[in-house]
Amino acid sequence: MQENNLTVVTEFILLGFQGSQYLTTFLFCLLLVVYYGTICGNLLIITVVSSSKNLHTPMYFFISQLSMSDILLTTDIVPNMLHILLNNTGTVTFSGCIIQFYVFCGSEIFECFLLTVMSYDRYVAICNPLHYTSIMTTTYCMRLVVICWLLGFFTAFIDILMILRLKFCGPNIIDHFFCDLVPLIEMACSDKYFIKLQIYLLSIPTVITPPIIIIMSYVKIISVILRIPSNTSRQKAFSTCSSHLIVVSIFYWTLFTVYIVPTRGQTLTMSKILSLLYTVFTPLINPIIYSLRNKDINKAVQKCLDKLELTLHQQY
What we know:
The protein has 10 helices and 3 strands. α2 (58-87) runs antiparallel to α9 and α5 (138-164) runs antiparallel to α7 (193-226). It has a 3-stranded mixed beta sheet with strand order 2-1-3. It is globular, with a radius of gyration of 22 Å. Helices cover 77% and strands 3% of the residues. By secondary structure, the chain is mainly alpha-helical.
């Protein structure tokens, strides 16, 4: 009888960032500019890599896949967040909330696996350069990327199945700007100990293992680079890895701070700010890091701009 009398939650109210009108207006304008820059920057990377023959290599193919993931992630989060900022609060249906979390979770797990594949690519290129072209073939790279996408969204689907086993009977107010894992679990009114345990156990192969593999790869890479006699060759080898290392560091620092490190002393505002870093600002930073620190991409962008300028000049 008690379970039958429980009110089933059909929608959630997202509070977003509560504050003065000036603060919400500033955040709206900032996030709109960031979203626009993220979409343009990542689309530029995808376009340049696909159109320039010089960039048809495994490393740039993986970078373009990372850009696709960043576009998917930021599009899943930011438009609804902008709506919440305009209206101070926002409502999302239960199914809409689950779908948003599924896309968010799938793209994040995909990025975990892809960054691991990218470290493997650098490992083969530096530690086994003579066999690089025979190992990292186009077919093999395609298979690796497809496996990353499938593993990412299959693992996210398992998370969704676990969350759907919970009962949501109120309250339905989420003090966050999107449907994240921790707020969703805390909203449940049924026993969530075993669900938390299962999700944390699932995070070991998806979130904990990839950075361990990346660290092991770079320990080997650095040991090989340090044995290179030529300073020029050594610097060139380091430069091919530096962008990836920066992206990995930013991604895992924010991810571990929010989900792995204990959050007892962490305020809701700090948690939301950290969530902003990896859902909104990291997808903007990634193309900046790869474009500003990469001469090949800069040259390809310049060629594309020159072609566009020439085409416009011929038309007018």
